[in-house]
Specification:
heterotrimer; B: 321 residues; alpha/beta; 8-stranded mixed β-sheet; 3-stranded antiparallel β-sheet; C: 300 residues; mainly alpha; 12 helices; 73% helix; elongated; disordered N terminus; disordered C terminus
């Protein structure tokens, strides 16, 4: 088991390196000058030159890249140009927020999506199915940032039940923390719920056609056992992969929601970094994001091994 | 079962898969249901337990009675009382018929828990006994294994154990040996016969293999294209067959004493459900067919108290006016 | 052998049926599919609005009438006015033009490049490895971030939005095309053509492409929908076509600050996006149902 994990992590390394290389290249080729953004539009050329000197932008690309990798080996991601703080610190502050958001969105997605999919399949082609499918369809079509705004209007302004934005840390006020996450989590989860419900439904439909379901029925087992035990266990396996992918999508899609709800998360951090050409922050942030996604894939693979008795981890 | 009619497909565009089949089964008796692939024998069996593939298949007509109880119109919960407990079924492909992610022992034990209300430990003990009874070595090891860890023969034995867990009155075996190696086939058959005598179960053995039927069955029913061609005791049907189809089937079995070079076959192919021949369904392939055969569908003519066949030749090709 | 992955199933079943044999009844099936027709009608309606925007606008979309700011929806401003006093209705239908055009352009470009890459990778084994590594690397970036990065890098404009979104969606399309091509490559008629000595390019053009089209078209419909959503997001974040050009995303972005007083500024453009995406999704679903029927219980 340990060997399996180590092997997977080792394989992931080159991918991470590739990711950081590509992002460095993109940023290099891209026009835009952080010096200008920092010093302001009205700075003189001399001031700009001085700023660039300070930021180390004058040095050749390869030199900067190597320095960055070397620093990475020491665990140092450099300092953010715009925020004037170590990148690691900036990221560390934001990560919990994004994780809280994505995590609660994932919980919502699974709690809503899977039962909907199962019900939809069991009652296939009845009004229940149609209703749930329509709901799923709406989820995929409605732009979530727009829905967020509408929800803010409804719950934040008109009814005033929930805060319209901002983040309250769990340590400060647990109830407030939950409250401020409800709307964002829901908006973020919207798209994924639809997708998960549909995939659960089609997987379930397929499973219900299988011979072993017929055997289970032939044994005279009650419906809830046939569906809940025999069918469901087999549905879980592919659905888990989708849940893993969903989490990845939730993490990356958090940018917009964080912007709308003014949550200080990773997504917004990275977006602002891109706008401001804050290279160290971009590099560091993308690396961390990619690493998290890789870790996620690893966890999903592990879960796969645990849930499906047919898969042995030494097979890979 | 009387006059069973099973159809497939949406209203108005349906195909008849089983057309007017009547069968009786006495306690402790083994009925062999024989026919080529696609003749409707499996569907007949599935209909008994209400397991026709939904939403396409349904019973359009006919009665199925078990000990006075109407099985066609029974509710799902009533049927669940019958399934597994009074009437059990084993299927052809043990690999797909067993749930791949649930341990083998659990698949046996759950039937016991559900139908007899035994607690987990007692059910597990029964499962162990059953595994032993069906001839699986190292039952205490096997009971916690998954289907993919067992061989084909062992899986079929597990299926049998599951079916017999609650001592059903009737066992329906749908081609239990077709997917197995020849050597294992004989073992499984012997096991089935053994268990059938021991538990005094009635059994419906569905197969396309006349050899199997000859060994095990008390009575035989031969089906063709959704209808019964001939039925009677095993010796009547196999030794004094009355229907041309049965005779053709028997003669197509290669025997060691055969001197002719070519294997006997039945010319033509089984008709598809969408293109059933008029009149007697076998007439396009029948050597003894006459004009009347294409126009009139033969009913079952009684040849003795127990023996019947559906062929116009038995009436001198006369049709009932 | 059943694969639990619905995507794989779809490709296998659709491809093995082939398009040729079912061409005559295809249109009939499409036209009788309720959801498809709903989506198609809705989309058609949108297209009409966009095409004839100039004719059916009530007043020019850029015209600011500061005295008439924040008028609630009411005749003669059926959808109200925004913070600059511009008529929302007129802006909406002009925005339809741009948003639909961008969405369509993305679908087109993605389709072309995705097919090129997918077919090359699927058919020519030597190209498969490097091409797919590149695609995987691109897909490792979170989609939105990549789009933002590219759009921010190139500057805010409609063209750059198209480029950015195409880069994001091409790898996904290439993947789907590739998996279809992998299946088609093994079919009998391709093998037969090869054994007759036909040249690879000819085989690709004549056999592989037509039979890979079905899943591709379905996918492109969905990409059209995603692109419209994504363009709205990009504009919302400020990296799409710059104001005062009306796009649906821009309108939502501008209205964001006035949620309390005039929520309708955001409401209508968002609704437009939702309806358009909905119609496209219905279209895609209908196409998929017709081109590749789900496995129902079969007789026999």
């Amino acid at each position: 088991m340990l060997e399996f994990m180590l092997r997977r992590i080792l394989v992931a390394m080159p991918v991470l390196l590739l990711v950081s290389l590509i992002s460095a290249l993109i940023m290099e080729m891209v026009p835009g000058d952080p010096a200008v953004l920092l010093a302001g539009q009205s700075a003189t050329d001399a001031e700009l030159a001085q700023m660039r000197e300070q930021l180390g932008l004058n040095r050749p690309f390869l030199e900067r890249l190597t320095d960055w990798y070397l620093a990475l080996a020491r665990g140092d991601l450099g300092d953010s140009i715009l925020l004037n703080r170590p990148v690691t610190q900036a990221i560390a502050e934001r990560v919990p927020v994004t994780l809280a958001l994505a995590g609660s969105a994932l919980l919502l997605t699974v709690l809503l999506g899977v039962p909907c999919g199962v019900l939809s399949a069991v009652y296939a082609n009845t009004w229940v199915d149609q209703a749930l499918l329509t709901f799923a369809l709406l989820g995929v079509s409605i732009p979530n940032f727009w829905l967020s705004l509408m929800l803010i209007v409804l719950f934040g302004v008109m009814l005033d039940w929930l805060p319209a934005g901002g983040y309250i840390a769990f340590a400060d006020d647990p109830v407030g923390w939950v409250k401020c996450l409800i709307l964002p989590a829901f908006s973020l989860a919207l798209l994924q719920v639809g997708l998960l419900a549909r995939i659960t439904r089609s997987t379930m439909l397929e499973v219900l056609q299988q011979d072993y379901v017929r055997t289970a029925r032939a044994k005279g087992l009650p419906v809830f056992m046939v569906v809940g035990k025999h069918a469901f266990k087999n549905v879980l396996i592919p659905v888990m992969t989708v849940i893993g992918i969903s989490f990845g999508l939730l993490l990356s899609g958090s940018v917009v929601i964080e912007t709308v709800y003014s949550l200080p998360g990773m997504g917004r951090l990275l977006a602002n970094a891109v706008f401001g050409r804050d290279y160290p922050l971009i590099q560091g942030g993308l690396l961390v994001t990619a690493a998290v996604l890789v870790l996620l894939n690893l966890v999903v693979d592990l879960l796969y091994v645990l849930v499906d008795p047919r898969v042995k981890y030494d097979k890979r | 079962m009387s006059d069973l009619r099973v159809v497939f497909g949406p209203q108005g565009r349906e195909q008849v898969a089983v057309d007017g089949v009547s069968l009786t089964l006495a306690a402790g008796e083994v009925l062999g249901l024989v026919g080529e692939s696609g003749c409707g024998k499996s569907l007949t069996a599935l209909a008994i337990l209400g397991l026709l593939p939904r939403p396409a298949g349904r019973i359009e007509r006919g009665r199925i009675e078990f000990r006075g109880k109407d099985l066609v119109h029974a509710s799902q919960s009533e049927m669940n009382q019958v399934r597994g407990k009074d009437i059990a079924m084993i299927f052809q492909e043990p690999m797909t018929a067993l749930n791949p992610v649930i341990k083998v022992g659990e698949q046996i034990a759950e039937t016991i828990r559900v139908h007899e209300g035994l607690p987990g430990s007692a059910a597990r003990r029964r499962a162990l006994e059953l595994l032993e009874r069906v001839g699986i070595s190292n039952p205490d090891q096997r009971i916690d294994q998954y289907p993919h860890e067992l061989s084909g023969g062992m899986r079929q034995r597990v299926m049998i154990a599951i079916a017999l867990a609650c001592r059903p009155k009737i066992l329906i075996a749908d081609e239990p040996t077709t997917a197995l190696d020849v050597t294992i086939q004989a073992q499984i058959l012997a096991l089935l016969k053994d268990l059938q005598t021991e538990f005094n179960m009635a059994m419906i053995l569905i197969t396309h293999d006349l050899g199997v039927v000859a060994q095990v069955a008390d009575r035989v029913a031969v089906m063709y294209a959704g209808r019964i061609a001939e039925q009677g005791t095993a010796s009547e049907v196999l030794e004094s067959s009355a229907h041309p189809y049965t005779r053709a089937l028997l003669s197509s079995i290669p025997s060691l004493e055969q001197t002719s070079a070519r294997l006997q076959t039945i010319a033509g192919m089984v008709p598809s459900l969408a293109n059933l021949p008029s009149g007697c369904r076998f007439h396009p392939r029948c050597k003894e067919a006459r004009e009347q055969c294409a126009q009139h569908t033969p009913g079952l003519t009684a040849l003795s108290l127990t023996h019947q066949a559906a062929c116009l030749a038995l009436n001198g090709y006369q049709t009932n006016g | 052998m059943t694969s639990a992955n619905p995507e794989n199933q779809m490709n296998h079943a659709g491809v093995s049926q082939g398009l040729q044999a079912r061409a005559p009844s295809l249109w009939k099936k499409l036209l009788s599919h309720r959801l498809f027709m709903t989506g198609a009608t809705l989309l058609f309606f949108m297209l009409l609005l966009a095409l004839f925007a100039d004719l059916i606008e009530l007043r020019p979309p850029e015209k600011m009438q500061v005295r008439l700011r924040f008028k609630a929806p009411d005749f003669p401003y059926p959808l109200g006015t925004d913070n600059y006093g511009r008529d929302i209705y007129s802006r909406l239908i002009h925005g339809a033009r741009l948003s639909l055009a961008i969405g369509f352009a993305v679908a087109l470009v993605t389709g072309i490049f995705g097919t090129l890459i997918g077919v090359s990778a699927g058919y020519f084994r030597k190209l498969d490895g490097p091409l797919m590594r590149l695609m995987d690397a691109l897909m490792a970036f979170p989609a939105i971030l990549l789009a933002i990065a590219i759009a921010a890098a190139l500057g805010p404009s409609a063209l750059n939005a198209v480029i950015a979104l195409s880069v994001v969606y091409t790898p996904r399309t290439a993947r789907i095309v590739r998996s279809t091509v992998l299946v088609v490559r093994e079919t009998d008629y391709v093998q037969a053509a090869k054994s007759c000595g036909a040249r690879d390019l000819w085989i690709v053009w004549r056999h592989v492409l037509p039979n890979s089209l079905a899943p591709l078209i379905v996918q492109l419909t969905f990409i059209f929908a995603y692109a419209i959503l994504a363009e709205a997001i990009l504009s919302f974040l400020g990296v799409g076509p710059p104001p005062p050009t009306p796009t649906w995303g821009n309108m939502i972005a501008e209205g964001k600050d006035y949620l309390r007083e005039a929520s309708y500024i955001c409401f209508f453009p968002g609704l437009a996006v939702a309806l358009t995406c909905l119609s496209l999704n219905l279209l895609g679903d209908g196409l998929r149902d017709v081109l590749d029927p789900r496995l129902r219980v079969q007789i026999g």
